[in-house]
Every structure is written in structure tokens, then in C-alpha cells.
Amino acid sequence: MNAPAPEPDPRAREPNVSAARAGTARAWYERRVRLQTLAPAKVNLVLRVGPRREDGYHDLVSLMVPLDLGDAIDVAISPRPGAVSCRVPGRPELDGPSNLAARAAERFRARFGVLNGVAIRIEKRVPVTAGLGGGSSDAAAVLRCLARAFRIRDAAALAEIALEVGSDVPFFLGPGPAWAEGRGERLTPADVPRLDLVLLYPPDPTLAIRAGDAYRWLDATRNPDAPALPRVRRRFALSLVGNDLEPPCVAAFPALSTLLGRLVGRGATTAIMSGSGPTVFGVFEDRSTARRAARAIAEETGEPKVQILLARTVRRQPRVTPWRSPRSASSRSTRRSSRPT
Question: Which of 9, 71, 138, 168 is catalytic?
């Protein structure tokens, strides 16, 4: 398939019409296109797990909600053929082709016949291997940037690429809170009010939980007569909150129970583990109550035993925008402040 042309950088020259007419995989523009977006974290307000399937996966019913906490994603597209590069400043172990964001870019290029070089830069703010979907969200953010740059509007094709990269990636391509079924590929929009959360992430590597282990522990302890998966509901209620992976993970790591207890003890309406953990979170009445709880828990636990994050659920995924230099934004602010009043 011939590659469509990327949208222009506002400062780029006019399109190379001869290249467009030739239908080559070369970009139309003589200067690179650079886009940016936020890759939000998520929490699972509901995670119900069905029996293990023959293909090794489990059918799920999960209510996922994006947060105002996220990684900053910068995608630069070269006008010339090249490779995909991925850099995460300060986290060299996340650099390179094994990063889900780089895999997503490679799958996109293969699907749509794109030869242009793609440079990805990720400013990590979401804890890694924490049950918050950080890597999956980064991958989806790169797909959103590339789809805008190359004017791809085939939502089904993008969803297929997303599912190939990871089960949670399709959610982050969607518009906002959603129920996910199957492996996570069947999405139904959900009506979730704004919720104020306190997240507790234990960075101790001995508490890291691999998703495969969490599901295996559940399978080993599950009653064969476990209830069927619940039906999806449009409206969310706190009574629905629950995570089937939490009991076996807490049994393996009792420290998680202590963290859950601290959230409830400081006023959380409910507290559960997100995804396959080890992050746990509490839902609070409002932002000020959540902030007070976070301060109190910090005094109880002390750093670096646990990373404490304040977050709020959001109703929409972030937009993709042209990249702007922080210096140019600063200079605009300076010019405004220097105007006579």
C-alpha cells in the first residue's frame, strides 16, 4: 500500500506535488513533521476475569478510565526514509525497539507502507510495570500522532494494530472511559463522573507483578463454579468497583493489603488494586480530601517506600497538536507580560 503524505508542519514548505502524483512512500514536505500529545495513565475501576481460554488469554469485563496523569509524547517524522527510534530520557532501559511505542510505530509503517523515519521521545511520568497502562498508552499515543500525520482515518485498521501491540492499547485509541470485553478489543463507552484519586505505587522491585503471574495465580485459586462475567452497564456506580486479580496478588504480597488499609483509613470511599498491580488507589470525596489523605499517608510511610500520586479521572483522551518549543511559549508569555497596561 502506498503511504499517504504527512500533514505539514506549519513552517514547512509547500507539498512536493510530483512525489504525491507518483504515489511514492516519500513524504511530501521538505521539513520534518513534529507532533506532541499526552499519553494518560488509566485505572481499572472494574476488572472481572473469565476462565482461561484455549489460546491462553482470558475473557475480561473491565471498566477503564483515563487520568490527568500521563507521559509526554513527542513524535518527529522525517521527510526521508529511515528507521524508528525511541528514546526515554533518564530511563535508558526503556530506549530502543522493544518499547511498545516503537513497536506500534513499526506496525503502523508496515500496515500503511510508510518508509519515513520516525523519532519518538517519551518523558515518563507514569510509573512503569505498575498496572496503570503507561506503556500501552505510549503506544496508542504514537499511533494517534502517526494517524494524524499521515491522514489515516481507518479506525478498524488502527484498532487491529493496537491489539497486535497489546490488549490495553485499543482502549487508549478510544474517546474516553469505556468498558472493555474480550481481550480488550470490544469497547463500549461508559459514563463515569469525575473522581478524585490517591494512587500508591510501591517501587520496590520485589513487589513488581507480571500480568501473566497475576492471571496464573487467579487460575490456580479460582473456584470452578465462579460466577459468569457481569453485563456491561452504561452508568458507573461505586458498588460495581472490584478487581478479580486483587485477592491472589494480595495473598502473594501482603504489603499491598497494608496500602489498601491506609487508603481506607484516610477516608477513601473504596480502595482497590489497578489492573495487575502493584499500584493501589482510593476514591475520595473531593480533591481537598484526597490531598489531605496523600499528605497523611506520606507521613506514615515515608519515601521511598511508596510513591504517592494525586490524580483525577478525565472524560476524553488528549488531542494531538503540532509540537511547540517550550522556549517559544516562554517568549510569547514574556512578550505579553511586557505590553503596556
Answer: 168
